[in-house]
């Protein structure tokens, strides 16, 4: 139990954690993987090499320090991270290992500022924070395993179809090898796939959004092939080039909190960039099935039609349902694209959104690359869209657009 004095110490260290947090977490991961290389089977090694995980963890530690009096305020972040942890297999026994090396890194980086009182306060604080994560994640493990068709950890799925959707994106249809019914999922959720890649020492785990509607006899993921083979594209290239129909892939139960709310009929705006359309297409299909009277504006941004995946599925839905408006904007259109009357040229801006949307009293969901996310978020802020009407997700470690824009 944290004392009042220890809470004061934690809050007093928040400024230095904000300043040197990434330095601490970088050293932490170095020490962690040196002592426990087996944990590289869980962590995304690309995010490690790119520094994304270090930045995300630093932000989480800083948020915990600032909110140590009211940890319930960071519960949404805990749940978001908890979904990722559950999908890759983080267990309670991992937390003491992480705590030990986090304190060692703080002591090394902070030097004389890391007094015995500071380290003892953080040891107690970490114990409290870890217990919150463990409790939240245990409930998630139970929910995943006890639902109809659910399971814990990873189980084998077979690739039944492999479909080229664009010059960069391929869809993989996955069915459970055991033939059991699939659990339902909330539109917007993802699954983790676990791959053993030839020549790689450790397992690679990646999360991919489910790109079709729930309650099918398959899961579908639509994967963008990254141009780099190392480190950015090692998994996507393996899937595109090596995985074929009939192959088996270990898959987690669906996870994630970027999900569509179908509790009301508020007009909906779904905005995607590139492969970010995958969770939003699942949302669109769900609305068509469950709320056919709900007004939906579906906006997709891509470089051009050659890189515009799953366009036909959206077009077919628009033809079926009069309540859907569909807009496409290309930043680098082909000559044929420029002749089309159905597409716009350029980037998403506040002015363009105000031109195509009648008002801002809607629910906005958006997903895509970081630059795209910044642009959409800034535009909606400029239009005075309330924060609780903006819903978004990054592909990668949890982070906030507010933090990115501050940087």
From TrEMBL:
Give EC number(s), comma-separated: 1.14.12.17
Co-factor: note: Binds 1 FAD per subunit. Binds 1 heme b (iron(II)-protoporphyrin IX) group per subunit.
PROSITE patterns hit by this protein: FAD_FR, GLOBIN
Where in the chain is the site Involved in heme-bound ligand stabilization and O-O bond activation? 29
Question: What residues correspond to the site Influences the redox potential of the prosthetic heme and FAD groups?
Answer: 84, 393
Q: Which UniProt keywords apply?
A: Detoxification, FAD, Flavoprotein, Heme, Iron, Metal-binding, NAD, NADP, Oxidoreductase, Oxygen transport, Transport
| Domain Globin, chain residue ranges per copy | 1-138
Q: What name does this protein carry?
A: Flavohemoprotein
Identify the gene encoding this protein: hmpA
